[in-house]
Design a protein that fits this description.
It holds the Pfam family HHH_3. The chain is mainly alpha-helical. It is built from ten helices and two strands; from the N terminus they run ααααααβααααβ.
Length: 218
């Protein structure tokens, strides 16, 4: 199956909306805004700012309810809270929403695709276990057989593929492939990467990598 062209990586939020909350809410939204930021970044300082702005907003409401001179003081505190929290949010925006660049997005996309391929391999292995006949029809683990529309995530059936396909398994040298092919002919195949490594004298360091892609259909 032809590889699917990667989609353009999605951009993460730049935090502009978050940074405007205190300004647009006349400061009343600052406590919730900074509480969210503190949780998002696991920041005690941002959480402390949320508490401070919350205390200021609470004082404002209490002063307005009291009326008289207290109301005037509350209005002053509201103006200060509005101004300070709006400036604070704009200044904290790069910390709360670190700038994202193309390389970061591409790296996330590569990781996403690798996980998707792993999921395809797991699904294909399940088909081999549950329905061997269907697995043969889908040519799972047989990139040497075409056409092959089913995407198995890059599995290789060690017991049946030709040597040039077997050499695609990570870490295998031509000498190792020759040993594996000879043993396969003698004993009719293998049942696991560990057994193959033991009989073919493969380095232990490559067994886990081989097991990720190898399939052993008897």
């Amino acid at each position: 199956m032809p590889p699917v062209a990667p989609r353009p990586p999605a951009r993460s939020s730049d935090g502009l909306g978050w940074s405007l909350v205190p300004l647009l809410s006349v400061g009343f939204g600052a406590p919730a805004s900074f509480l969210y930021a503190g949780v998002r970044r696991r920041s005690v300082a941002l959480g402390g700012a949320a508490v401070g702005y919350g205390a200021a907003v609470t004082f404002e409401f209490a002063a307005f309810l009291a009326g008289g001179g207290a109301a005037a003081l509350g209005l002053l505190v509201m103006a200060l809270t509005w101004t300070i929290s709006a400036a604070h949010a704009l200044a904290a925006r790069p910390r709360v929403y670190p700038p994202d660049n193309v390389r970061d997005r591409m790296n996330r996309r590569v990781v996403e695709m690798a996980r998707q391929r792993r999921g395809l391999r797991e699904a294909a292995r399940k088909i081999v276990l549950d329905d061997p006949g269907l697995a043969r029809e889908l040519r799972i683990g047989r990139p040497d057989l075409l056409p092959r529309p089913f995407d198995d995530g890059g599995l290789i059936d060690v017991n049946h593929v030709p040597p040039e396909v077997l050499s695609r398994l990570p870490g295998l040298t031509y000498a190792m492939v020759d040993r594996i092919m000879g043993l396969r002919t003698e004993q009719g195949g293998f049942v696991s990467a560990e057994e193959m490594a033991l009989h073919a004298d493969l380095p232990p360091s490559i067994v886990s990598e081989i097991a990720e892609y190898a399939l052993f259909v008897r």
